[in-house]
Amino acid sequence: MSSKSLMSRPMPRLARTAAAAVSAAALALAACACGEQPQARSDGDAPMRVAYLSTANYLTTVRDEPFLDETMGATDVEFTGPYNPTDAYAAVLSGNADATSTGTGSFIDFLAQGQPWMAFAIEYYEGDSQGIVAAPGSGITSLNNLKGRKVAIIKRGGTGDYVLHKALEHTDVDVEDVDVVEMSPSNFQAAFTSGQIDALSSFDQNLAAAVATPGAKLLIDGEDYDNHNVSIHIVSKDFATRHPEAVKAMYRALVKESEAAQRRPTIITDAYKEFGASDETAEQIAQFDVPKILPIDAQGRAMLEAQAKEYVDFGFIDTTPDIAAATMDCSA
């Protein structure tokens, strides 16, 4: 839905955006399958189309804020979602959306693959919303007990894999000694509670649900090691090139949303409940650090470059991508 009154509103925002998400995702996946490249839009007044995720990052929660219209100025914003991350990225790459969110590790991986992204805001937190949790009945009490045990992650090279590598850096256990199991997050909780896996290396709502499980034990979180992996907001390079002022306006809106969440953290937990989180999970999420929006200035780029070097060291990517060429300092 546009942040301006461009058209009549026959149904509520959430209903319309959910319907649009289904259509956009289908178009996105079809375009990617056919190998089509996103087409530049010639209309200078085109809206900024945001594919928002079913997580409480600020590019998701800002969509209903009354200050969004004023902050964005002449730029209208259309939100479609909630998407799962894979469909959101496909929507942008196929030209059916302009902006979305991801983790800094995934962003680095995208750049290493040569994908045309531009990052414009870091959503920084201390790291307590990512970590490793031992399953109930596993008998695991420390990281050193993970040798030979099954640890679930979403995908190789993703946040869970990064957490596992970072957590084991200063232990007697090598990552190669762990039985790493790739698994859809929709299967995490059932596997975690039934003994199919011994531990979970994950983040965000998945981590909170695991920690809230009776008998589970948090082994480590991102505050216990030198964590560089946080959230990041990205747009297609094409959109950033043609509409830099719109991207800067969205950065300012995210800063306002971050400031609002510092005063009222229920912005985050309410969003998770909207997306189906249980009361127990929401209570655990409420204990996590409230993120802040930071610019990708020299300090922000240095953090991304440090993580990119780690990705090379861990074997996730071959070479460090050009971070400077794929980031905008919107505070300038």
UniProtKB/TrEMBL annotation:
Keyword Protein transport part of the UniProt annotation: no
Entry GO terms, CC: periplasmic space
Signal sequence interval, chain numbering: 1-33
Domain of life: Bacteria
Keywords, sorted A to Z: Signal
Predominant location category: periplasm
Pfam family, one: NMT1
Domain (SsuA/THI5-like): residue spans on this chain: 76-265
PROSITE patterns: PROKAR_LIPOPROTEIN
InterPro entries named among the record's database cross-references: SsuA/THI5
Locations listed in the record: Periplasm
PANTHER family assigned: ALIPHATIC SULFONATES-BINDING PROTEIN-RELATED (PTHR30024), TAURINE-BINDING PERIPLASMIC PROTEIN (PTHR30024:SF47)
Family label: Belongs to the bacterial solute-binding protein SsuA/TauA family.
Listed name of the protein: ABC transporter substrate-binding protein
